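Attaching the record inline, Q. Sequence:
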Amino acid sequence: MFTHRSNKNGYTTPQINLVNREVLDLFAGKTDLNTALKTVLSESLQLHHLLAGIFRVSFSEPSQNPGSRLFVEGSSAKAAENFSKLLERTDTQKKATSFLWDKVRIRSKDWFVLLVAQLSPAARLQLITYVPSGIDLEKTGFHLHTQVAEYVAIEERAPIIEIATQQKKLARLYGVTGWEECRALANDPDRASLLEIDMGI
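Structure, as predicted:
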């Protein structure tokens, strides 16, 4: 009996094709994220396969600069829209964050700047305030959470701070970013927490 050969990540060519098709339909508006995710999971695949599919369909690798990545024309907004949803959902946000920590490298971060610029405020907050377990910040050369914070323009900070206040993550956000706006927009209990951070308590 003929069997499909698995790639190095352990899934077959038909499975890769299925994921690619779901992502293309997602980008074209022919399906929604919940349906695409259910389809992928029903094929004995996992969330990271869908994330990899979004990555694979969205990016190209320039032949003159192997290892770097660029968005396929017209795909950055769709990629950002779906990454935002996955970073916002409580059942997928940690794995989506871990996926990006694994994929972003210093030499190929130009596409990530463009992606972050189009992410929702809640998605940016997730990337800034959550560092996956197993990440050694002293050894890794690229701190994704602080890089995301640097990519956020001053005029775009207020919505992130508002969501952080609602989610009780303001102290964590301030600890990573040091944004003055955190103190200006904080309520009294949060101001006390921010003062403790300033004092190193």
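The longest strand covers residues 59-60. The first helix runs from residue 13 to 27.

More tomorrow.
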